Prior knowledge:
Elements: E1 11-20, E2 26-34, E3 40-47, H1 76-79, E4 85-90, H2 106-121, E5 125-134, H3 136-145, E6 152-158, H4 164-169, E7 170-171, E8 174-175, H5 177-188, H6 208-214, E9 236-241, H7 249-258, E10 264-269, H8 275-278, H9 280-289
Parallel strand pairs: 3-4, 3-5, 5-6, 6-9, 9-10
Antiparallel strand pairs: 1-2, 2-4, 7-8
Helix pairs in contact: 2-3
Amino acid sequence: MKRVSRPRHDIVIDKDVEIPLRDGVRLRADVFRPKGAGRVPALINIGAYQKDKLWVPPPDLEEKPNPHMNWETVNPLWWVPRGYAAVRVDTRGSGKSPGQTDPFSLQEALDFFDAIEWSARQPWCSGSVGTIGISYFAMTQWLVANLKPPSLKAMIPWEGAADMYRDFAYHGGIFCFGFVSNWYNNHMAHHLLGRRDQASPDAFSKNWLWDYMRNSLDTDAYYGRQARWDEIEVPFYSAGNWSGVGLHLRGNTEAFVRARSKHKKLRIHAGTHYHPFYAEEARQDQLRFM
C-alpha cells in the first residue's frame, strides 16, 4: 500500500488566475499551492457553482470550517500541505469566467481539457494532473476523459453520473422535470454570470433545459454529454453511493465495469452526498490512489 504523506508545507494562494482557451476565452481560476515545494502534481476541478462561494459544512463533518471550503471540492488546507496544488476553475459563463454556460457539454469538456494542459505547463506543476470532486465536479471528469488529455494521470469521480440522457435527463425514458428544474433553479441560475445568448437576447446562458426537453430520445444531441467507455483509459477511483441511485450511482458502477482503464477502483458507500468524501478514512484512501 502506498504510504500516505503527512502535511509539511504552507500554502500560497493565487486568486483569479486566467486560463486561456483555444477559442480565446479566458477562464478564471484559484490556485492553491505548497510554498517552497518546487514542482508538484495538480488536482483540478471545473464547475458552475462558483469557486469563490464559501461552503460552511455541517458540524458533524470531519472537515472543519475554514475560509477556503467550497461545495463538493477538495479542502486545500488538507491537500496542499501534503504536496499537491489545488486548482478551482469557474466554468465558462459562471462565477468570474466569461462566456455562455452549457453544463456537461462537449464545449465544457474541451475547456476542461485546456485547463488541465494549462496546469501541467505551469512552473509550479510537475506535469502530472489529477481530477477530483463530487457530483458536477465528478460528471465533468468522465466527459473530459473521453478526450484523453495527455497530462491527465488519474481521476477520482466521486458520485458522478456519466450519461446525461439515462442518468440525468431521462430515467427510463421519462423526463426528470422535478429534479432537473429544481437543480437548475436552486444550484445553477444564481451562479451564471456570462454573456447573453445571441439567439435569445433575454437569456444569459444557452437554453440547455429546453434542449433536454425537446430531445427526448438518445440521439446525437447527447454527443459529448455521455461517457464513451471504450475511450476512457486513464486510471480512476470511482465512488458511488447507494443513497444516490436516482442520479449518480449508475455512472460510477458502469465506469468500473465498462471503461478500458487497466487501473480502476470501485468504492460503494452509503450516507449523505458529501460526508463520505470528507471523512478522514476516505481522504487517506484518495491520497493513496493519487
